[in-house]
Design goal:
This protein is mainly alpha-helical and 179 residues long. The chain is built from eight helices and two strands, in the order H-H-H-E-H-H-H-H-E-H. Helix 5 (79-103) packs antiparallel against helix 6 (107-128) and helix 5 packs antiparallel against helix 8. Keywords: Disulfide bond, Erythrocyte maturation, Glycoprotein, Hormone, Secreted, Signal.
Length: 179
């Protein structure tokens, strides 16, 4: 029969281990390999969508964030403005990806789209932790957005948005976290 002190030690070790796992969600994405994996999965899905042919030829209008970055304008925004812009952009991407997912019946493509949706939702959760206030609903109307007409264009916009504004925001946040 185990001693009480042995049991207490085991419980303390488990509690300390659990406490160590409750780090900020931002820390996980500070490893550049995480965002690079999300970008690679978006590229892979785009390539699969292009090669899918007629069974994936879904044409519709998808609202996506503008992916170009004016670095001067970006640097002049405060963190709340940057967070709001990225959150709105990610929300637009999720809405568009869900719309595509509903129309695609090819199982491997559906799985890739599901993975992209989960990745973007994870980023939304992480980036939400950077914001000290809820963004105003009017920001959605004012955010820079454009339209695409095919799933592959949508996935290309997703890749560029992740490589651009998301990467800039997370890089700055991770530098702040590290200092």
């Amino acid at each position: 029969m185990p001693s009480v002190s042995g049991l207490v030690n085991v419980v303390l070790m488990v509690l300390m281990w659990m406490g160590g796992c409750q780090a900020s969600p931002l820390r996980a994405v500070c490893d550049p390999r995480v965002l690079e994996r999300f970008i690679r999965e978006a590229r892979d899905t785009e390539a699969a969508m292009r090669s899918c042919g007629g069974s994936c030829a879904v044409t519709s209008v998808y609202t996506v964030p503008l992916t170009n970055v004016d670095f001067t304008d970006w640097e002049q925004k405060d963190i709340e403005g940057q967070v709001a812009e990225v959150q709105v952009g990610l929300s637009l991407l999720v809405q568009a990806l869900v719309a595509v997912r509903k129309t695609v019946s090819v199982s491997p493509i559906s799985s890739l789209l599901d993975s992209n949706i989960i990745n973007i939702q994870s980023l939304i959760h992480i980036i939400h932790s950077l914001s000290s206030q809820a963004q105003p609903l009017t920001y959605l109307e004012q955010s820079a957005q454009t339209h695409t007409h095919s799933p592959s264009e949508l996935l290309h916009a997703q890749t560029n948005f992740l490589r651009g504004k998301v990467k800039l925001l997370l890089s700055a946040a991770c530098r702040t976290l590290g200092s």
